[in-house]
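hiii so um. not sure if this is the right channel but i have a protein structure encoded as tokens and i wanna go backwards to a sequence. like what aa goes where. can anyone help
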């Protein structure tokens, strides 16, 4: 019997009702476009050095979660990520030394994808 329910039930019926309405864990079909999750690989000096340790850097969409990123890497590059770390880089404004005016830099979201030893991704 629920506290604020108007419907009265016996305790003997409650387990049967709960067993009938229990959610079943099934695999959900993906309704998201995994190719649009990863914007581009981020190839920098730090990123190239990290790729020797099986860590790859990608620019991803702002609304992408770690699970979305892992699924996209698995689908696009046929490797299974061990771990995914994300970094939100905020937009900033600063004075340009050479131009003498305010320069605006866009923000982005980076993902560091860790792979198992032996797995590689060819980006270039």
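sure thing!! here u go:
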């Amino acid at each position: 019997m629920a506290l604020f329910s108007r419907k009265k039930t016996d305790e003997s019926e409650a387990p049967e009702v709960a067993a009938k309405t229990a959610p079943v864990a099934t695999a959900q079909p993906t309704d998201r476009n995994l190719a649009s999750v990863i914007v581009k690989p981020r190839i920098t000096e730090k990123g190239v050095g990290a790729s020797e340790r099986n860590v790859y850097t990608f620019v991803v969409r702002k609304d992408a979660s770690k699970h979305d990123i892992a699924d996209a890497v698995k689908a696009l590059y046929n490797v299974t990520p061990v771990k995914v770390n994300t970094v939100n880089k905020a937009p900033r404004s600063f004075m340009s030394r050479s131009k003498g005016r305010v320069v605006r830099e866009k923000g982005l979201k980076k993902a560091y994808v860790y792979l198992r030893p032996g797995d590689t991704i060819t980006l270039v």
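oh and The helical segments are 14-21, 45-51, 66-77.
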